[in-house]
Amino acid sequence: QVQLAESGGGLVQAGGSLRLSCAVSGRTISDRAMGWFRQSPGKEREFVAGISGAGGITRYRESVKGRFTISRDNAKKMVYLHLNSLNSEDTAVYYCAVASGMFIPVAVGSYAYWGQGTQVTVSS
Questions:
Q1: Per-residue pLDDT tens digits of the chain, which is 124 residues long
Q2: Are 65 and 59 in contact (CB under 8 A)?
Q3: How far apart are CA 124 and CA 108, in angstroms?
């Protein structure tokens, strides 16, 4: 059984930083792209960042480019999301997900496994 567990969320002031972590158990992840999504109340879940299976390719939504960085450690089966220069629009529950293949999709339906999420709240 594949399980994902996110951690690292919390309350941070605008302009601050956080590092989110995602631990995967139950399968190897080196053959799959990984993604981070977020969802705020009343909004659809949206793609934030993704990383290819080997880690050589990354992809970001436009509003987080230059502020967020995704990385992975396949040996540890961990995926990270570094969040910098946070603003109130980044407030959401952040989810880690395992893609169905090696390339980075942005659609929610292209991800096979999901974590429970971690809350990020940015105060202004």
A1: 899 999 999 999 999 999 999 999 988 888 999 999 999 999 999 999 999 998 889 999 999 999 999 999 999 999 999 999 999 999 999 999 999 988 899 999 999 999 999 999 999 8
A2: no
A3: 29
User: HEC states along the chain?
Assistant: CCEEEEECCEEEECCCCEEEEEEEECCCCCCCCEEEEEECCCCCCEEEEEECCCCCCEEECHHHCCCEEEEEECCCCEEEEEECCCCHHHCEEEEEEEECCCCCCCCHHHEEEECCCEEEEEEC
